[in-house]
Amino acid sequence: MEKGNAMAGVFESIQIKGLSISNRLVRSATWEGMCEQDGRPTPKLIDWYEQLARGGVGLIITGYTYVRPEGKQLPGKMGLYSNAFEREYRTLVDRVHDAGGKMVMQLVHAGGQTEEKNSGFPALAPSGIKVKQFPNLPRAMTSKDIKEVIGAFGVAAQRAKAYGFDGVQIHGAHGYLVNQFLSPLANQRTDEYGGSMENRARFLFEVYDEIREQVGHDYPVMIKLNAADHLDGGLELEDACFAASRLWEKGIDAIEVSSGTGASGKLGPVRTKILSPDKEAYNLELAMAVKERVGCPVMVVGGFRSLEQVETAIEEKSLDFVCLSRPLIREPDLPNRWAEGDTYPADCISCNKCFQPGMFKGGIYCVPLKAGEKGEGKD
Ligand SMILES: Cc1cc2nc3c(=O)[nH]c(=O)nc-3n(C[C@H](O)[C@H](O)[C@H](O)COP(=O)(O)O)c2cc1C
Question: Is 294 left (phi over 0), alpha (psi -120 to 50) or beta?
Fold first, then answer.
């Protein structure tokens, strides 16, 4: 367990376990929609990651990568449910390392947030109930399903390590399976995985323990955690802090704080209209609350557009990293631009039109808005 470096500068390096990261800017996990139907990375995806690494971001977190076939959500998503893509993943990591980057793989199971037409399998969830962010009624997971999915997270993490990734991040945010177990709304189980917070967090803790068992104590294991779902009856800050502090005691290496689900409306994870400094940094207070409860580095994501707000988070609020998603779709070299002294804010206008080419055109990119047009989010 590492203590965060309070009062560090944005362009100061930091260590997470043996991993040396050259600055405090992180590419937050971003689905690119650039893989083949079965989750195999394409040359286009590999080129894109190399470009991100050349742009100077300290750490790249991959798009969400599914650990079992039924856990797939959006098209073109990365898959790590078998060894079939080893060659592509090794090439991907080598290209990022050769370009000076560091890379952590985000591991996910979409649970009830997917449907058969996306994954080819009926959706699984903690309970067989239809909450607002689920497209259909999922099947409640049996104890056997739970064990198998936990095992799949562990095997996927072990593969990521073997292929050369610098760490793994559990996707525990945005309403996906881990978040579904944490949420009293989506998790209405009456066994040891439901009810009290201790029980609702059991799935996450077992996923963490299994990953740790597979990758050992020296390998960075992180989490992206919802500190609040912003849903009536959903996960609240106090319960999220319980999960965060217990994970820290268990040895988690970093916690990225996010919030919201696809059903949270204006308080979703990928908010629009961040056009003035007061709209930026929308998870800052939540991240500071988590930081008070843990001793490991804390990352904050959500709406950072200006270097000024990034500096406030790191230099004044003592957070350890600021994560960026949409600004780097628009400008993959934003970190280098800021480091070189051009401190004009990110060009991204937070319209969320970048999702559309990922769904329909073989990969995300920044789509300029036409006059009068509005964008929309998915994640
Ligand atoms: C196109 C797109 C894909 C995303 N994919 C993921 C993902 O795979 N995993 C994840 O945790 N968050 C994902 N997100 C959410 C971002 O990581 C981030 O939490 C959110 O966009 C807020 O940060 P930003 O204001 O810097 O964009 C995605 C966002 C966008 C725009």
Answer: beta
pLDDT tens-place string over residues 93-113: 999 999 999 999 999 999 999
Measured between alpha carbons, how far is 26 from 302 in angstroms, rounded to an integer?
12
Residue 373 covered by a domain: no
> With a 6 A CB cut-off, is 270 part of the ligand 1 pocket?
yes
Ligand 1 contacts CB of residue 364 (under 6 A): yes
Q: pLDDT tens, 142-200?
A: 999 999 999 999 999 999 999 999 999 999 999 999 999 999 999 999 999 999 999 99
Note down the domain range covering 226. Answer: 14-360
**What is the CATH classification number for the domain harbouring 65?**
3.20.20.70
What's the 142 CA to ligand 1 centre distance in angstroms? 30
Is residue 370, in this structure, part of any structural domain at all?
A: no
Confirm whether 176 is a catalytic residue.
yes
Please indicate, yes or no, if residue 50 is contained in any of the structural domains.
yes
The Cα–Cα gap between 258 and 170 comes to 13
Task: Give the predicted TM-score (pTM) of the model.
Answer: 0.96
63 ligand 1 Cβ < 6 A: yes
